[in-house]
Design brief:
heterodimer, A: alpha/beta, Rossmann fold, six-stranded mixed β-sheet, 18 helices, 19 strands, about 25% strand, globular, B: mainly alpha, ABC transporter involved in vitamin B12 uptake, BtuC, 2 strands
């Protein structure tokens, strides 16, 4: 082991049925360093992290830690934790029905008895020091996703770790929260903690990281000092190709922009659901791409969920082509030609144990009816068609969807809805936690579908992505629609100003 | 042969098959007479097959029918119905009540058997609906929800017949749990075949399988795909109710009477074991119907084997438990992974030897 390194992983191999997830990967982390682990979806980042944290057992290779003479044995997350390796995962893995404090201390107690009072006090102290707006005794599920994520980080930070792994911690945080996190990361770095930072946000990498390790298709591409690897080159390294695709989309004209004459396909008047949003008006035209924007928790998702009937609508009406339609459950919306890709892929999107094939045909099958199942041949045909069309990387159509990487899971869900041939496609955070390449693919697909006449609502936390795809943006603040931007108003600063509103 | 075993490995149905083969081998080694099947003549003068194997087929069929419903309930709700024994008593009691009318020992049947059976179907499906409502609508744990009928069912069954013990003297009623004149194979086998056929057709020509599994794996996602998870869970319990009615008919037909506290006792545990032995996750989700049905016969095979060795009926459960532990542990994913690893290690050595 080198003198300054806290962690060395050597020659790591790991395979899953049909997939070689990691092949001879090396990784070195030094003291007081923020080290970005980069790669496309399915490149093996998450697998490497899970090997390190004992979630998966490696097939081959050694892991060395500072202060240990021989290779570390990590067979369970508990082992990893005891060795000073703490993790905050991409998807929140805390227990929503426990309190914040319980979540921070669960699995860490030495004795049998717990001192609840002290635990709550300690937790409050930590939350306060990190500026996290949550109470120790509050039930975790009553916090927003962003705060839950921060609690997870607080838990990891509090565990006195030598190696801190942040696996996509920022994908559900807004900019201020990300800033707060960075302050925290720099703090820890100064204290000598080695931080592994997995993210898809290039800006963030260049803002906080010292080194970058790039993986591609389960293999190590290389380790670079941040100053030696300009942004364009990093993306090229990750994709293994040049960046023509990226520039393509920027040059592309937004289709149907400014074409105001058309009638609205769907129109909502004073729509309100039981999810706590204020009544809102909304319309979408044929072939239009619009978006909802706003800070996290501003009610973006709740609006589209109300349109789709996912939350119970308590007020207002929805019209299709000028005629009122009744939507009280998702099936009603589907029958009206609406498709909805939900925000939380793991919880609301995938049907984990089910095959990619069944996941693709599910919505179309439900629309077709209980007594009219697709034949095996039809199912196969649909699955093959969409696996090819969206370039879904899977061992076969029989593979359970949960074995796929995040981006490919998302493509399967997208395929599911495209198969229903919707007139109106709602995409809620379709690119969250997805690599650059797939992001661009999805954006391009959205524009292509719109040019073919499909109406699309696109929601994303990344405003530049929304600016690239949407011709009209509905801006939300505090669960209320506060503005609408079109044409020249569609700029970063325009959005920011509207979001900020008259409050400042 | 090797190809077949390789193909089978990792498939779910491998588990009950291995269990069956082990049990079969055990009996073959200890006492081959276990497999003796003879042609006898029963009291009605009809030729009937008898022997341990026939007993297994006979009683295993009851269990197989229940396993069908239990598999669906398990898949959709991620829990089990422990009230099936008690609801079999209710269904059986209803059949007798309809057949006997007001007199508990009638000379002739007071209603056609088919009518009695249909009324029992309604009663059992109502019980299923009650369980289903508690689980699907009120989100009560299936085992707790069904604990209600588990406790109350046998009393209700007794109450249906005013706590009398009706006896059917009409011999033709014994056909459903006995033999059809001229056919030496027990009738429950045919009833089971009909049930399996209907289930097979339902799984092939409707989306019952896809919907139950989707709901069992991820209810929230299923809802957003237009399904109604509550209704599908409810439906699974009602279907199990139907299975219960069929078993109720077989059970009362066997005795031409009923014993409220003994009829179908502990059958729910055997049915749940059948599902587990079939390699289905008891936490719901994906299921393999064929494996469950085979599992039911394996459980009956085990029970019959124990009876054959004159295990005291009071001690039966304890012996069964030992075997069940072995079966269930060996089919647990953790253990199977270990086995797979072991097989991998052994393979190269085997090659060298060759």
């Amino acid at each position: 082991m080198k003198e300054k390194s806290v962690l060395e992983m050597r020659n790591i191999h790991k395979s899953f049925p049909g997939v070689r997830a990691l092949q001879a990967v090396d990784f070195t982390l030094c003291e007081g360093e923020i080290h970005a682990l980069m790669g496309e979806n399915g490149a093996g980042k998450s697998t490497l992290i899970k090997v390190l944290t004992g979630v998966y057992e490696k097939d081959e290779g050694e892991i060395y830690l500072k202060g240990l003479d021989k290779a570390a044995v990590i067979r369970s997350p508990q082992d990893a934790q005891n060795l000073g390796i703490s993790t905050v995962y991409q998807e929140i893995t805390l227990c929503p029905n426990l309190s914040v404090a319980e979540n921070m201390y669960i699995g860490r107690g030495k004795g049998v008895c717990a001192n609840w009072k002290k635990m709550n006090e300690d937790a409050d102290k930590i939350l306060k020091s990190l500026d996290i707006p949550a109470k120790a005794t509050q039930q975790l599920s009553s916090c927003s996703i962003a705060i839950q994520q921060m609690v997870a980080i607080a838990r990891a930070v509090d565990m006195d770790c030598k190696v801190l792994i942040l696996d996509e911690p920022t994908s559900s945080l807004d900019e201020q929260e990300v800033e707060k996190l960075f302050v925290l990361m720099r703090d820890l770095k100064a204290k000598g903690v080695g931080i592994i930072f997995v993210t898809h946000f290039l800006d963030q990498v260049y803002e906080v990281c010292d080194k970058i390790t790039v993986l591609r298709d389960g293999k190590l591409v290389g380790e670079y000092e941040i100053k030696d690897l300009p942004r364009v080159k990093l993306v090229a390294t990750m994709l293994g190709k040049e960046l023509d695709d990226m520039s393509d989309i920027k040059g592309e004209q937004k289709v149907y922009e400014g074409k105001d004459s058309g009638e609205s396909l769907f129109e909502a008047e004073g729509l309100q659901s039981n999810a706590g949003i204020k009544p809102f008006d909304f319309y979408i035209k044929k072939g239009e791409v619009n978006g909802f924007t706003g800070l996290l928790g501003s009610g973006r998702s709740e609006c589209v969920r109300a349109i789709f009937g996912a939350d119970r609508v308590i007020h207002g009406k929805l019209k299709k082509n000028g005629k009122e339609v009744k939507i009280s459950k998702p099936l009603d919306a589907m029958k009206q030609g609406i498709a909805y890709l939900p925000e939380d892929r793991k919880l609301d999107g995938i049907v984990g144990d089910m095959s990619v094939r069944d996941n693709i045909i599910l919505a179309a099958q439900v629309l077709r009816g209980f007594f009219r199942p697709f034949s095996k041949a039809e199912k196969n045909k649909f699955a093959e068609e969409y696996i090819k069309l969206l370039e879904i990387k899977t061992a076969s159509a029989d593979t359970p969807i949960k074995a796929l990487s995040g981006g490919n899971q998302q493509k399967v869900i997208l395929a599911r809805w495209l198969l229903t041939h919707p007139e109106y496609l709602i995409l809620d955070e379709p690119t969250r936690g997805i690599d650059v390449g797939t992001k661009v693919e999805i954006q391009k697909l959205v524009l292509k579908l719109a040019s073919e006449g499909m109406s699309v609502t696109f929601i994303s936390s990344e405003t530049d992505e929304m600016l690239r795809t949407c011709s009209r943006l509905v801006v939300m603040r505090d669960r209320k629609v506060v503005g609408e931007l079109t044409g020249d108003e569609l700029t970063q600063s325009g959005i920011m100003a509207t979001i900020a509103g008259g409050d400042n | 042969m090797k190809n077949i075993t390789n193909k089978m490995r990792g498939k779910q149905i491998f588990i009950p098959i291995v269990a069956l083969v082990l049990l079969a081998l055990f009996n073959l080694i200890v006492d081959p007479s276990f497999y003796k099947v003879t042609m006898d003549v029963n009291s009605a003068g009809n030729p009937v097959l008898s022997g341990y194997l026939i007993t297994i087929l006979d009683y295993g069929s009851e269990l197989a029918i229940l396993a069908i419903g239990m598999t669906l309930v398990t898949a959709a709700s991620g829990g089990q119905d422990i009230s099936v024994g008690a609801t079999v008593a209710i269904a059986g009691s209803v059949i007798l009540r309809v057949l006997c009318g007001t007199n508990s020992r009638p000379e002739t049947l007071q209603a056609p058997v088919i009518v009695a059976f249909l009324v029992a179907c309604l009663a059992a499906m109502a019980c299923g609906a009650f369980n289903g409502l508690l689980v699907a609508k009120f989100n009560i744990q299936p085992m707790i929800a069904t604990l209600i009928l588990f406790t109350a069912g046998r009393s209700i069954a007794a109450w249906i017949n005013n706590n009398e013990l009706p006896v059917i003297s009409e011999e033709s009623f014994g056909v459903y749990g006995g033999f059809i004149p001229g056919i030496p194979i027990p009738t429950p086998v045919f009833i089971m075949l009909i049930c399996v056929l209907v289930t097979g057709l339902a799984l092939k020509y409707t989306n019952l399988g896809l919907y139950t599994q989707a709901v069992g794996i991820n209810a929230s996602s299923s809802r957003l795909n237009g399904l109604n998870p509550a209704f599908i869970k409810f439906l699974a319990f009602v279907i199990l109710g139907l299975c219960v009615a069929v078993v109720g008919l077989i059970k009362v037909s066997r005795l031409s009477s009923i014993n409220y506290s003994v009829i179908a006792k502990d059958i729910e545990m055997d049915a749940i074991l059948a599902v587990a032995l079939g390699g289905n996750a008891l936490s719901g989700g994906k299921f393999n119907m064929a494996a469950s049905i085979l599992g039911a016969y394996v459980i009956q095979f085990l029970t019959t084997t124990l009876y054959k060795f004159n295990v005291d009926s009071a001690a039966l459960s304890a012996y069964k438990a030992v075997v069940v532990i072995a079966l269930v542990v060996s089919s647990a994913p953790v253990v199977r992974k270990k086995f797979a690893g072991l097989a991998k290690k052994l393979k190269p050595q085997a090659k060298e030897v060759a």
